[in-house]
Amino acid sequence: MADSTLQKQLLLSTPADIDEIFRLYRLASAYQVAVKGTVVWPDFDRSMVAQELAEGRQWKLMLGDAIACVWAITFDDPQIWGARNADPAVYIHRIATNPEFRGHSWVADIVAWARDYARQHQKKFVRLDTVGENHGLIRHYTACGFTYLGLAVLTDTAGLPAHYHNATVSLFELPVQG
Which pTM value belongs to this model? Predict the structure, then answer.
């Protein structure tokens, strides 16, 4: 249970965080297994995450000295967003919450951070996706301000993590202004 007196910070992850990032990914995958009908994350490529860390695209929400959740971003996501990728956007991927800190609406904090971050980088949208038609996540992300754009069938998934192969994804978008 999160202590409300702990200082909350949203910071860049560092290479020293990589083991904790992968621990949170494993815990998220275990949670996905427990929630029937949810697509389960594969084991992600460590070199992919190391590259994101090196490029300053892995982030964390800290509560005191503990990582409450992590996520990755990119400014380019053509294989998932197709022609919409031409729009200037920040794309959020792989939000994974530490089970000790679930139930505190961290996505709302990430969304507020992402809107500010997108503004600073002259982007017009914050976007994210989830594999499949996960009604719980659709409700959660729309409650956080995203518009659900519907389902898209991915056709070119070479180089994407395994859960995107032969997948249909739910797409979400949030204008930066507004």
Answer: 0.91
